[in-house]
Amino acid sequence: MNGHDLARDTQMHTLELEFLRAQEATIESRGHLEMLAQRLRAAANLFEAARGRLEILEIVEARAQRAWSDAEQFVMIGSSAALTADALPMRSRRACGSTTTGGNSVS
After folding, report:
1. Are 102 and 86 contacting, i.e. CB atoms less than 8 angstroms apart?
2. Mind giving me the DSSP string for the chain?
3. What is the pLDDT of residues 6-48, one digit of tens each?
4. Would you place residue 91 in the very low, low, confident or very high pLDDT band (cuts 50, 70, 90)?
5. pLDDT of the residue at 105
6. CA 75, CA 83: separation in Å to the nearest integer?
7. I want to staple 92 with a disulfide (CB 3.0 to 4.6 A). Which of 15, 87, 88, 106 is the partner?
């Protein structure tokens, strides 16, 4: 073997080592990328589940607010109706079909 062959073999060996290192780094990088992709998919799934629960809770909250508002209106209407019936003279109450006086039933 002459000097040129030895230099070329050394250079080929160096290139082969660099290639193997680059190949290992690529494999490792792909593994990290896949792991990050899995984490992102898991986080996206959690986010979607949380968004779904939030939408359901917002619907429940809106229904509860409507029910509360309806209940308040019912109580206000009921109170004003009772006050109006109590304010009528007895004869008018009987004509309207109301038989209560001051919250007590009249027989």
Report:
1. yes
2. --HHHHHHHHHHHHHHHHHHHHHHHHHHHHHHHHHHHHHHHHHHHHHHHHHHHHHHHHHHHHHHHHHHHHHHHHHHHHHHHHHHHHHS-HHHHHHHT--EETTEE--
3. 889 999 999 999 999 999 999 999 999 999 999 999 999 999 9
4. low
5. 47
6. 12
7. 88
